[in-house]
Amino acid sequence: MARLADGDRTAFDPLYRELRPRAIRAARRSLALDVADDVAQSALERVFFRAAEFERGRACLPWFYAIVGNEIRAARRTRTHAPLDVEPTSDAIDADESIAVLELEIALDRAIGELDGPSAEAIAVLLGRAPPLALAAPTFRKRLSRAYARLRTMLGGSHG
Q1: Which of 35, 3, 39, 2 is nearest to 23 (CA)?
Q2: CA 116 from chain center: how many Å?
Q3: How far apart are CA 97 and CA 22, in angstroms?
Q4: What is the pLDDT of residues 53-110, one digit of tens each?
């Protein structure tokens, strides 16, 4: 990814071959199959469009999965026929994917541990790890937005 961010166009093909299956698997876990492939392609386009924003020395996969996750959430908001909870099939997860997911979960748990109490609570509610907070919806959304911005920074994402 760093090579592509530096303008090396020869890095495009190998990176695309590496990231495309990951984008498809992530999208298929969360969306209907007829929507997932389009969302994965859209996420890849966004990754390559934003390649110049990638910071050399940062981990590529958290940055990549943040973009894929944003595309999935956007699809859920705009496509009412896309189911929210689709269980992964056994053939959708391979060893590399499992390791990547585990590494991301560990990094996320560490980052949540570094957040202030209210931010950590908001993220825990979002992830289904805690019951809803007794807050007005706009207050919760603002707290969640701030916590999410902090997490993105901690995990190497862009805050732009």
Answers
A1: 39
A2: 22
A3: 7
A4: 888 788 888 888 888 888 888 888 776 444 444 555 544 445 556 666 667 777 777 7
3-state helix, strand, coil in the chain (%, to 5): 70, 0, 30
- Report the distance separating Cα 106 and Cα 102, nearest Å: 6
Distance from C-alpha of 74 to C-alpha of 72, rounded to nearest angstrom: 5
Smallest Cα–Cα separation from 76: which of 31, 128, 137, 123? 31
- For residue 105, give the nearest of 85, 122, 129, 83 by alpha carbon: 129
Token look-up 């994402």 returns 157
CA distances 105 to 1, 99, 122, Å, are 21, 10, 17
Q: What's this model's pTM, rounded to 2 decimal places? A: 0.51
DSSP 133: P
Task: Confirm if 4 and 19 have CB atoms less than 8 A apart.
Answer: no
**Tens digits of per-residue pLDDT, 12-66?**
888 889 999 999 988 888 888 888 899 999 998 988 888 888 887 888 888 888 8
* Alpha helix ranges (H) inside 31-116: 33-49, 60-78, 95-114
